[in-house]
Amino acid sequence: MGEHRNVILVLLCTARVLAGGLAVGGAAAAGEEHLQLDDAAVATDDATATDALAREVGVWEQQLPIITTLTGSKPGINPHRSTHSPSMVQIFALCVSMYGCIAVMWALFWRLPERHAARVHGKVFLLCMTWASMSVGMQVLNKMLVDHLQAPALVSVAQMWIAVVLVGIPSYKELLDAPKRQLLIWLIVPVFFAAMLCTSCYTYQYMSLSFCTVIRNMTPLIVLPIERTLMPADKCPKLSSMVLISMFLMLVGIVMYGEGIGHVSIIGCIFAFTNMIIAVSDRLVQRRLLTTECTGLASSVCTVMNNAFGSIPALLLAGATHQISDMASPEHRASWTDPRVLTLLALSGAIGIGICYLGFECQREITATSFFVLQNFSKVVVIVCGVTFFGDPIRSPLAVAGLVLSIGGSFCYGRAQMSLQEQAAKEQRLSRGRLSSEAPAAQKAV
C-alpha cells in the first residue's frame, strides 16, 4: 500500500498542475533636391556602417551572451533561441495525452485482482513507461520554459521551491528530527545541486534538445577519468577495447552531428560540459556524505535541503544576470503571469520529483541492462520531440548519422561496462570458491 500511495501522490501532483504608423509627407523645392540627395547618400553610408557594426556586435553576443547580460546590454535576449518555438497548445496536448494515458493504465492496473497473472509484469511495464514519460516530459518542458521565459536561473528556482513544498510538507517531522550536525555538513551539497540545475537550464537556452542529448552522451568521457582517479582500485571502472571503441563512436557522433547542423554554440558546449562535471561532482559528494558523515539523513530530508538552500545561489545568479529585474518589463511580465506557463512550470517541478522516485523503483524491479535500454529509448523519444516541436535541424544525412553513432555508442558503452562488471563478479566468486576449498584441505593437513 505504501508503494501505491507514493505513486498516487506523484500522479495526483501531475494531474493537479495540468488541470502606429509611420507617415512620410511634404515636397521639397527643386533647388534643394541635390542637397537632399547628398544627405540621403550620407545617411545610407551611415546606415551601412551601423548595420555592419550591429552584425559584428551580434556575433560577439552570440559567443558571449552571459557577459552582455551581466553588463546590462540587452538583458534577457537569447541569440540562440529556437527558430521554431512550439505553441502552448502543442505542449499541453503532449502532456495531457502522455500522462493521461499513463494515469488510465495505472487505474486499470489497480483494478486487477491481487493474484492476477498480468499484475507482476504489468507493474514493471507501467513503472518503466511512467519513468520514461517523465524523463521525456521534463526535458521538453525545461526547453520550452527556458525558451519562453528567457530566465534559466529563475526557472531553476521555481522548480526548487515546488519541490520544497511537495516534499517538505509531508516530511517536515523527519526534517525536525534530523541530526543538526549532519544537516550542517550537508549544506555543501546544495551548492553543487544549484549549479547543476542552473547549468542544465542554460544549456537548454543555447542548444537544441537533440544537441543536448548528443552532448550528454559524452558523460563517460568525463566520468571515467574522474572515477579512475578518485575511486579505490577495487571499485574503479574497468577499461576494455569495447569501452574505448564505444567512447570513440560517441565522440565521432557528436562531431558529425555538429558538422551536419552547420552551427554549434560555443557557450552552449561550455555550459553542457560544465553541467556534466558538476553533476559528477555532485554525485561523488553525495555518495561520500551518505555513506560516512551523513548516514542519519533520510532521502526526503536531503531533497528538501538541496532545493531550499540551493535556491539561494540560484536567486543570486538570477539577480546578477538581470533576470529578476527583467520580470517587470511588459513582455516578460506577460509570460510570467500567463496561467498556461505557470501550469507547465508547476508540472515540471512535480515531474522532477517523480523522476527521482520512479528511477529508484525501476532499478529495484528491472535489471541494470533493461534500465539502460530504457534510458536510451527515452533519449530517442527526446530527439523525436525536439524535431517535432522545436524544429531541431537533422535534415542533413551527416546529422542523422551522427545521432545514430552517438546513441549506438552510448548503448555499446553501457553494455561493455555491464559485461566487465559481470566478469569481475564471476572472478570474485571463483576466487572465493578456491579459498573455501583450500581451507578444509589446510585444516586436514594440520
Structure description:
This protein has 19 helices and no strands. The termini are far apart. It has helices spanning 2-18, 33-63, 65-70, 88-110, 118-149, 152-168, 172-177, 180-186, 189-206, 209-216, 219-230, 241-261, 266-291, 299-320, 323-326, 330-336, 339-365, 368-390, 397-445. It has one domain (83-325, 337-429). It has 446 residues and is mostly helical.
What oligomeric state do the depicted chains represent?
A: single chain
Q: How much of the residues is beta strand, in percent? A: under 5%
The gross shape turns out to be globular
H/E element string?
HHHHHHHHHHHHHHHHHHH
Number of strands: 0
Helix content: over 70%
Calculate Rg over CA atoms: 27 Å
Biggest β-sheet strands, sense, barrel? none
**Domain module tally:** 1
Q: Which structural class should the secondary elements be placed in?
A: mainly alpha
Overall average residue pLDDT = 75
Give the count of helical stretches. 19
Low-confidence stretches: 1-15, 17-83
How many angstroms does the end-to-end distance come to? 57 Å
